[in-house]
Amino acid sequence: MVLIIIPFIAALLALVFKDKLAKIIALTASVAQLIVNFVLLSGFDVKNKAIQYASSYEWFSALGLNYSTGIDGIAMVMLLLTNIACVLIILSAWDNNYSGMTKFLSLVLIMQGALNGVFLSTNGLMFYIFWELALIPIYFIVGIWGGENRIKITFKFFIYTFLGSLLMLLALIFVYLHTPGNHSFEWSEMLKAEMNGWESTLVLWAFFIAFAIKMPVFPFHTWQADTYSVAPAQGTMLLSGIMLKMGIFGMIRWMWPMAKNACGCNYNIFIILAVIGIIYAAIIAIRQNDIKRVIAWSSVSHVGLIAAGIMTWNKEGLQGGILQSFNHGINVIGLFFVAEIIERRLKTRDLTKMGGLAKYGRGFAFLFMMIMLGSVAVPFTNGFTGEFLLLNATFNYQIILGIVSGLTIIFCAVYMLRVYQLAMYGPEKDNGGRIGKLSWSEYLTLGIIVILVITIGVFPNLILNISDTSVNDLISLMKGGATL
Amino acid sequence: MENYIALAIFIPLLGFVISGLLGRFMSKNITGIISSLSVLVSFVCSVILFNHLSNGGESVKLDMYNWIAAGNISIDFSFLADRLSVWMMLIVTGVGFLIHIYSIGYMQHDEGFYKFFAYLNLFIFSMLSLVLGANYVIMFFGWEGVGMCSYLLIGFWYANKEYGYAARKAFIMNRIGDLGLLIGIFVLFNTFGTTDYQTVFSGAASANKGTIELICILLFVGAIGKSAQIPLFTWLPDAMAGPTPVSALIHAATMVTAGIYLVARSSVFFVSSELASIIVLVVGLVTAIVAATIAIKQNDIKKVLAYSTVSQLGYMFVALGVGAYSTALFHVTTHAFFKALLFLGSGSVIHAMSGEQDIRFMGGLSKKLKITHITFLLGTLAIAGVPPLAGFFSKDEILAKAYYGNGIVVFVLLALTSIVTAIYMARLYFLTFHGEFRGTEEQKHHLHESPVTMTIPLILLAILSCVGGFLGLSSLFYHHHFVDEFLSKVLINAHIPHPSELFEIIVLVVSVIILVIIIFATRRYYVSNKNIPVAIEEETGVEKILSHKYYFDEIYNKLILKPIEWLSSFAHDFMDRRFIDGIVNFSGKGVTVCGKYLRLVQSGNVEYYLLAMVVGVITFLVIYQLV
Questions:
Q1: At A144, is the secondary structure helix, strand, or coil?
Q2: Against a cut of 0.95, is the pTM above it?
Q3: Domains of chain B: which residue ranges?
Q4: Contact B568 A373 (CB under 8 A)
Q5: Residues B207-222: pLDDT tens digits?
Q6: Chain B contact for A395, CB < 8 A?
Q7: Alpha helices in B353-481 (DSSP H)
Q8: Nearest-CA neighbor of B281 among B324, B243, B239, B249?
């Protein structure tokens, strides 16, 4: 509850004050959020399979719309990611002076509240409302503070997500209408919806398209590279770091359980799409010259692997997917921030115009290297464990698909090392751009990210343990075994 | 005993942290000494463990913590010091320590001095994890770690664009192999439910034979990448872009032998897999021949040695392929001695020549670089297989095992390759150290012997290259084969009959005669007749093909790189921009209702919307909280 309220109040506060103070308020609020999140985590029993901190208030009872929230292990990981990421995102904006900074920050805070709402909701309609609420700020952020062509690109982004949301709403209502007795949007009630295989399949596809657009999964991805590259750095971080996890979370929490009667064969199609996306995006990433576009495409590729892994619906895949969602969020924020730091100094993101940045920016070179290694999934960085579990799951699901998605470990090395080499190595370009010293906020942001990259690489069980019981329970639930 | 494992592994890691973080504040010598000492500690631990095992002690296992646990997968971070691991440990830390010492002199004038030592320590840590890991995943952890260090060190002089490309190429080619290894690990998980060595090997007998073959082939794909075998060998010669101590340590003595270690470690699987063993044999044999022939036409001192390394690794794979795992490990050992020596010697030459690496511009260095010259000569004789130096015994044993384990064809091909080896090494030696000096006046004036930190490791390695062969004397000379006796407790060698005495004597006599002929012939050709190699453009026929390294790089470029680049453009420009987006835009036009929303974005009055939104949400929340 508090997790949703704080950002909204802070958003209001921030709106009242001037730039500098607004930054302080926003940062304080996000740190407070994170502390609340840690308090919740410390009281969270990872061995308990029930939804914890559950609370429910009647809202429009006629509609079955209750304000119901609660946290299970899967949601806890997502909340942690959201609240850690928001601190990083706000910190990363410290050196930015956009016109209308206060508005910008309050939009970020609203997003944080809405995102927390998405992960907390245990009521279908609430979930939808927060989902939509999270979209509004990002439209503004991209539409107002974006770069060239922002209106056209925001429009495209809007159409995509609008279509997705529409399908999701229809699916939710459809399931709602099939719940027994007095219809309800409560998650636990919606699980009991009686649908035949055909109806389930319909629901499955509607959910899939909605979530696939958000993540995005091939071929619903064409909004993404443009939007990521045109959005201001923090907008891109929000989109890639946290928002796309709404899609992953949606698949695990809503799509899979709601459409349990659907033929498993549909998942074959989904996984094949995801695997195509892994390779397709990786190959495109190899030739891009805009840093943000390389990262954007790498994100499509990585998320494709997460999607493929979780949709095998076995425990290793789900656990790997949840862990990797967290890791991807951290790493991609780091990478986009690296791009932002370079752009702040060189006024360009074009790799062909860079070179030799390592010479006058050793600290930066080291931090960038660590984040890159995390992304390439070198052991003892966070990316390794997630990728290992996901690839293993995909491989066990189907050998050929496993091998094809395994190619990502090669391609990822190709495009990430290319970025690093073009930007950091080689002779200096004579346009005079240098990294020089990082500011304290830049150091702090990247520093926290690198610490997370290594800590989770060495102790992945820190995250895996949180979601372990919930994933077990979800799987046994789907097998028709024990339930809540 | 477990503590010695922990010390051996983590002291170099500590060294990495210290020199990485504090190196810039410390003097160069202190950084160098701290780094070197950390490796010395590891070496001492290795000796203690070795002592423990050779006195009949049990293998030592160190369990640290549960690293990854998800579903049926549970991976412990644990290390196992058995005879094979400890043998590798001794090589890694022993040769590693000498190379650390050497680097203090070699890198003295480099501004990235502390970074270099930090990376070297990190490499030792990774390499020890590789050989000591108690399951395949920890082995893979070290495997990737050494690959990363190799990447960092090849591209150490990052301002040079070419070096950056070489580093990238090495990493990516390794990754191709890694994919095979990774899938092999998945199959292991699938079959045995774990990758812990002890469990996996004891279950090998009852497992499906086809699965075992598959596992072996997949593991070998990993070995191909890391140990630079055909078709993934072209990265190793390019890796010579790194500083020379790196070439000696990583790209000759230790990391590239990880593939040999992997196959030997899995000897339980390989010994029963006929198909996989034949693949190993053929790949090793072809690589040995191809690389040796390329080496004849190279003019860069380090590239000759690099191709030589590839070729020698091929020899080791031949030994593995016939099931003589201890023999392969024996050659790993002697090769570590003489190849590290040769690389360090070449480093000393390059140091003296102010960075020049082309042997066409050297000559007559024996007068100025006395210690380098003598040690390099010993290394050359050792690799060429002159008895009683180290290379003779290990290579002779591979030839014998190939003959008795497989047949006359492999034996003859390998023997011919040995002749080629002697030729390119003699050519290298004579062009570098004899004849007239062909460099510039300035270089001539500057010629000097290297400092003592560099010559001492040279001398020690030269001694090892001379006596290393006595670790595995053939039955003709002595009835104890030390390497075989020590390692055969963990390696499951195939049963290959002992060579007859007649065979041994013939091989010994014939090889001595041939070597003497080669040495005099090359001396006559390159020194007396002054045939200095010409530029690559002037070559014709077979020589041209050899100089172009059989066009491997060009072929890969045409067949793999170009198509992928084309595909990338096609996917982006056509599939994405035209096809998928075309469909999206078409449907987008139908959704006129969106226009309405777009206007909201453009109206610019954001505060109003924001305020309305925030107030609305809070009101709802608060009201229904209270009600």
A1: helix
A2: no
A3: 273-547, 555-626
A4: no
A5: 888 888 999 999 999 9
A6: yes
A7: 370-384, 390-405, 408-433, 441-446, 452-467
A8: B324
